[in-house]
Design brief:
The complex is a heterodimer. Helix content of chain A is 11%, strand content 36%. Chain A has a single domain, classed as SH3 type barrels (Roll), CATH 2.30.30. Chain A is built from two helices and six strands. By secondary structure, chain A is mainly beta. In chain A, strand 3 and strand 4 form a beta hairpin. Chain B is an alpha/beta fold. Chain B folds into three domains: 185 residues, 3-Layer(aba) Sandwich (Rossmann fold), CATH 3.40.50.300; 66 residues; 377 residues, no CATH class. Helix content of chain B is 63%, strand content 7%. Chain B has 29 helices and ten strands. Chain B has a seven-stranded mixed beta sheet, with helices on both faces. In chain B, strands 9-10 form a two-stranded antiparallel sheet. In chain B, helix 4 links the parallel strand 5 and strand 6. The relative contact order of chain B is 0.08. Classes of the chains: A mainly beta, B alpha/beta. At the A-B interface, helix 1, strand 3 and strand 5 of A face helix 4, helix 12, helix 16 and strand 8 of B. Strand 5 of chain A pairs antiparallel with strand 8 of chain B.
């Protein structure tokens, strides 16, 4: 099983959150936004400069800067691996 | 994000001391919800347009309140800030939590997005942990029905054991039912026992242990459990609050003891994650039971991919913004002329009427040519562009475009050490800097908020655009038939320069006095929604007109009296105004300007619209503000007083970079609560302007010396 930083997952791919780094300075905010362990999250689009990027999580699109998203660790969802197929585009 | 609603209305000018009073028998209702759930729409649908702002104890952030009556009962509705949780990690969350805890609303209404139940129920579950008398308002039912995920409200009500009402507040659907439900909840003699989330066995055990520490206090079991959870979460600040607001509930020694417990917990482990995860898990479970699970993600985000793309993202945004500016400038022209004509007719009438009263001659002059003329001038210049600009922005906000601007531009602002949402406060600033400063409330982190507030004045507001456009027309492009395109391009250069200055000063501030780690950035991008054209336009127009008129009366009218007195009080052969002109002349010349122009800026401090009229008045040695007959006459007057391209250029630089107007400074004081920041907001742009003008003027002199 490979662990990815959230900012590194390709657009249109989704993954399952494993944990948020204890050092993250927006850990509490991320938790409030629903970035809890086991939640499915997808990278959906990116700003023109590539930072921030937009993620779809629990029914809402949330934009995060790459340095903050990097502290969310996820497991990529491939075919047959998670709840459903990880790609949708 | 409540940007234009809260930041651009009359409340800019309101004092903060209006504590809403609940008279005997009035039911106090708190309105709570995640951002972007249509909470404000529900608020407006419940109260109509009858709202005002007040200030609640504890924090100096304003909360809107409104009233409505139903079934013979009076209700006071308090619109708490939109938050994702009430853990009190941000000022907004603290306000919401403190209000629920200490102001004890009779009924709490939580607004949730029907299409996004799981995320929103999370907040509801937190709220019912403190407020048992809660009504759930499931809003945006129409949108959920459209995508086929409308929840089963009956089932939701059974699961939560609180009243649940479905609404579509934009069309008014369900609002009467919501009022009825609030009324029923208020009349109930006994509290419901709503669903309460349970935690892991270990955590439940710890909750029990913590509760036993203050078992003997007169608090109810629900509050005790809630406080125990906060202790486990390590929230020591809550205890000071408890002590302050409920001094009888806990003894000082107990509070000290509990605070120690909380601090120890904060260092020990991460209970927060467990609490949040458990609440989310419950929310997820309930959402799955009442609504069809929606596909994940629901769309391919085609519009967003286009609007945020590398190739088209920035151009689309610039075209839309250019369109807003163009509509504002072109659209404001005609009504502005009409207002000028109307006011000059009224001015003559006013003078005749005052003549029939037994007033001293000078007083009639002061009132007519000082007070009335300045007041009407400010209204004629400012009202039309404000009434066009802000409704257009409100439409863009309502549609959901503004957060995308912040998203697209965050990269740029990150490099300047500030927040992407600063782009939005700057957009507001183009309309009115005071509004831009209030809009900085949408930035969650204090450091970035302060940067945005201090630099807002670097973008020109509607009061300064006419000056800039006049300079371009008179000295750079001429007013011929083919001049409008180069003129527009030059104006664009000016705007880009002002944005660049803002970024540069932001960067400087974030490297010096506002040094610090860039704070967290998270931005919700809500789905696009069809704007409510008529409601938005009406609302925005009323707010705008009220604001411009109030400012004209409060600020421009006294300024008019002062200017008239300065121009008409003479010592020896010269008036006070002329003395000021000679005093400022040396500095003016150094800056490529002259004494009269600087006098215009000094006396234009209350309102930037009158900078040039005061300058003309000084040139003509007149006693009143002067409106020039034509562009040719204006140019002739200016050239006769030694103006060149250099003067026009330096005036534009100083117009862009000088002290904020009086209204904006007062707003900065109000928002930052500090005279120090207010002084800096005055000094920084003024210094930039003086240095910039001197540099440009001296370089210009040097080259013209070489060429001659």
């Amino acid at each position: 099983m490979q662990t990815y930083c959230l900012d590194r997952i390709p657009l249109n791919q989704s993954g399952i959150i494993l944990y948020i780094d204890k050092t993250s300075k927006i850990r509490r905010r991320l938790l409030d936004l629903g970035f809890t362990k086991g939640t499915e999250v997808a990278a959906v689009f990116s700003s023109p400069s590539g930072n921030p990027k937009a993620y779809y999580i629990r029914g809402t699109v949330i934009a995060l800067r790459n340095e903050d998203a990097a502290e969310v660790k996820i497991q990529l969802l491939g075919s047959g691996e998670g709840k459903e197929n990880g790609t949708y585009a | 994000m409540g940007l234009t609603l809260s930041s651009t209305g009359l409340e800019l000018l309101k004092s903060q001391d209006q504590n809403p009073k609940t008279s005997e028998g009035t039911v106090k209702v708190a309105l709570l919800g995640n951002p972007n759930t249509g909470k404000s729409t529900v608020f407006n649908a419940l109260t109509g347009l009858k709202q005002h702002t007040g200030n609640w104890p504890g924090k100096t952030v304003e909360v809107a309140t409104g009233r409505f009556s139903f079934d013979g009962k009076e209700f006071l509705l308090v619109d708490l800030p939109g938050t994702y949780s009430i853990f009190a990690d941000s000022p907004e969350e603290e306000i919401a939590r403190d209000f629920l805890l200490f102001s004890k609303p009779d009924v709490t209404v939580v607004v949730v997005d029907a299409a996004c139940l799981e995320r929103n129920l999370q907040l509801l579950l937190q709220v019912i942990e403190i407020s048992p008398r809660t009504v759930l308002c499931v809003n945006l039912m129409d949108e959920a029905e459209k995508i086929g995920t409308a929840p089963d409200l009956q089932k939701l009500q059974e699961l939560l054991n609180i009243p649940v009402v479905g609404t579509a507040a934009r069309s008014g659907r369900g609002i009467e039912a919501l009022k009825a439900s609030i009324t029923n909840a208020a009349l109930k003699t006994e509290d419901d026992s709503p669903f309460s989330p349970t935690y892991s066995e270990k955590l439940e055990e710890e909750i029990g242990m913590k509760v036993s520490l203050f078992e003997q206090t007169p608090l109810d079991p629900r509050t005790k459990r809630w406080i125990a959870l906060r202790l486990l979460d390590g929230d020591a600040t809550l205890l000071d609050k408890l002590n302050r607001f409920l001094p009888d509930a806990l003894s000082p020694s107990l509070v000290d003891n509990l605070a120690r417990v909380a601090r120890a917990e904060r260092d020990a482990d991460d209970t927060r994650e467990e609490i949040v995860s458990s609440i989310y898990r419950e929310a997820e479970r309930i959402a799955k039971l009442v609504a069809k699970e929606r596909q994940l993600p629901p769309s391919k985000f085609t519009a967003d991919k286009l609007i945020t793309s590398k190739a088209l993202g920035i151009p689309i945004m610039l075209i839309l913004l250019a369109l807003v500016f163009w509509l504002t400038i072109v659209g404001a022209n005609y009504p502005s002329q009409l207002l000028f004509a109307g006011f000059s007719f009224l001015e003559a009438k006013l003078y005749t009427v005052l003549g029939t009263l037994a007033l001293p001659h000078w007083l009639a002059d002061l009132l007519t040519y000082g007070v009335f003329r300045t007041l009407s001038w400010v209204v004629a210049v400012m009202l039309p562009p404000m009434a066009i600009f802000f409704p257009l922005f409100t439409l863009l906000e309502d549609w959901g475009f503004l957060p995308r601007i912040a998203f697209n531009l965050d990269g740029l602002f990150r490099k300047a050490g500030s927040h992407g949402k600063q782009s939005l406060t700057m957009c507001m600033g183009f309309g009115c800097n005071a509004a831009g400063v209030v809009a900085t409330r949408i930035i969650d982190s204090p450091r970035e908020r302060l940067i945005a507030a201090l630099t807002n004045n670097f973008v020109p507001c509607n009061g300064r655009f006419p000056t800039l456009i006049l300079m371009i027309t008179l000295f750079f492009t001429g007013s011929g038939r083919f001049s409008s395109l180069p003129g527009a391009l030059l104006l664009l250069v000016v705007i880009v320069a002002s944005v660049f200055t803002t970024l540069l000063v932001s960067k400087l501030l974030s490297k010096t006095i506002l040094r610090g780690i860039p704070s967290a950035f998270s931005l919700e991008l809500p789905p696009y929604r069809t704007p409510q054209l008529t409601k938005v336009l009406l609302r925005s127009l009323l707010d705008r007109t009220a604001f411009v008129l109030a400012r004209a009366v409060l600020v421009a009218a006294p300024a008019g009296a002062v200017i008239w007195i300065l121009a008409n009080t003479t010592f020896g052969s010269s008036s006070l105004l002329q003395m000021l002109v000679s005093f400022l002349a040396p500095l003016g010349r150094l800056m490529g300007l002259d004494g009269a122009i600087l006098t215009g800026f000094v006396l234009g401090f209350p309102a930037n619209e009158i900078v040039l009229p005061v300058t003309y008045m000084a040139y003509l040695s007149g006693g009143t503000l002067v409106e020039m007959e034509s562009l040719a006459a204006t140019r002739a007057l200016l050239v006769a007083n030694g103006w060149s391209v250099k003067t026009a250029l330096c005036l534009m630089i100083f117009s862009l970079n000088h002290f904020p107007c009086g209204t904006t400074l007062l707003t900065i004081k109000k928002e930052t609560g500090s005279w120090k920041w207010t002084a800096l907001a005055f000094i920084i742009p003024t210094l930039v302007g003086i240095v910039g003008c001197i540099l440009v003027a001296q370089i210009y002199n040097f080259f013209s010396f070489l060429l001659l």
